[in-house]
Automatic annotation (TrEMBL):
Domain TLC: 10-201
Gene Ontology, cellular component aspect: membrane
Native source species: Anas platyrhynchos
Protein name: Transmembrane protein 136-like
Keyword Endoplasmic reticulum tagged: no
Residue spans crossing the bilayer: 19-36, 56-75, 139-164, 176-196
Predominant cellular place of this UniProt entry's protein: membrane
Topology term for the membrane: Multi-pass membrane protein
Keyword Iron-sulfur set for record: no
Classification of source organism: Eukaryota, Metazoa, Chordata, Craniata, Vertebrata
Keywords: Membrane, Transmembrane, Transmembrane helix
Amino acid sequence: MPPAATGTGIRSHEWSCRLVTLLHGVAVTCLSGYVALLDGPWPLTHAGSPNTPLQIHVLALTLGYFIFDLGWCLYFQTEGDLMLLHHTLSICGMIMVLGLGKSATEVNAVVFVSEITNPLLQARWFLREMGRYHTLLGEVVDFFFVLLFLVLRIVGGALIMYAMLASPQPSWLLKAGGLAMYLVSLGFLVEICHFVRRKMLKKFPSWTSLRSTECTCENERAPDSSLMVVVEGASWDGS
């Protein structure tokens, strides 16, 4: 029986929601990445430029998902205030950009650097549900999630934020919203740092134990030096 059909109804609902989130994350990451990196315009130099048809489609798709997910979070009360603030700011920002007809360039780039870690986050949840999180695959997922979050969402997000603030084209309200979104990302970063710290503290005793075991094994395998002297002396005397 598939996991979605087992357990309580809440788990079944969440399994389906997580699957939707995973599919959305993969699709929007690919689309927004194509728009930001290939189709253009370049977000670091063209902040506030008019929206392109492809940018509008990507933001409309993302907006629909965020409205759905915000409704899920409010109904099932699964997320904290920080995530609710993130979703609210995202929805307001995308509605504003679609209404103004400009600035989708930088907002699409923000979607890319934000959503690229989402599939890994969902994969982590599915691995935990299937009892495979505490494996090498789980370690790889956690590593790349933290790495991509730091490099793209924090560093890349800072570059996008600077380009938006430096350009005279974007609305001041959009700039304020972008700054608020970056502060939310820093809030997520604090939570991730706490997660990494807890993970390292859990791993440290096992690493210490493993190192101690390796040293013990090496000592057991090493021949006794005094015995070697006796053996060598006997051999020498016998010759």
